[in-house]
Specification:
Strand content: under 5%
Oligomer: single chain
Number of domains: 2
Low-confidence stretches: none
Mean pLDDT: 85
Distance between the termini: 74 Å
Length: 131
């Protein structure tokens, strides 16, 4: 572990801050940038900001939850299309509704027991004739 080197100004920063001076006044007196004085003071006091790693993990978790919800919605649409087709709804209407809700041809085909290529061919032929 590297040895932390203390600057001769560290004690001065702490002393001046305890006397009630602002970071701006300290920075002017020591001829140091304002940000350097403030960050050094907080580092010396042991103040830690929330970890960026934790924040990134929260963002990843939120994205994962949104993705799962979106996939559930799309899967439900594909299942609903298969049910509607078996119930007698016209092919292009049932598949069109499922596609508008985000279901892929592969998902719909799996629910119907056909390949996505076969489903695409059937959907394309029927939708081009207006059925």
């Amino acid at each position: 572990m590297p040895v932390r080197k203390e600057s001769p100004t560290d004690g001065t920063i702490l002393q001046l801050k305890s006397e009630g001076l602002s970071f701006r006044e300290i920075s002017l007196q020591l001829r140091l940038p304002l940000g350097s004085v403030a960050s050094r003071y907080y580092r010396l006091k042991g103040v830690r900001h929330p970890s960026q790693v934790d924040r990134d993990e929260q963002l990843r978790k939120a994205r994962r939850e949104r993705r799962v919800a979106r996939n559930k919605e799309r899967s439900s649409a594909a299942i609903q299309a298969a049910i509607e087709l078996r119930g007698g709804l016209p092919f292009s209407v049932a598949v069109g509704k499922a596609r508008s809700k985000g279901a892929s041809l592969e998902m719909i085909g799996l629910c119907l027991g056909v390949s996505k290529q076969a489903l695409h061919k059937q959907w394309h032929q029927r939708s081009s004739f207006g059925n």
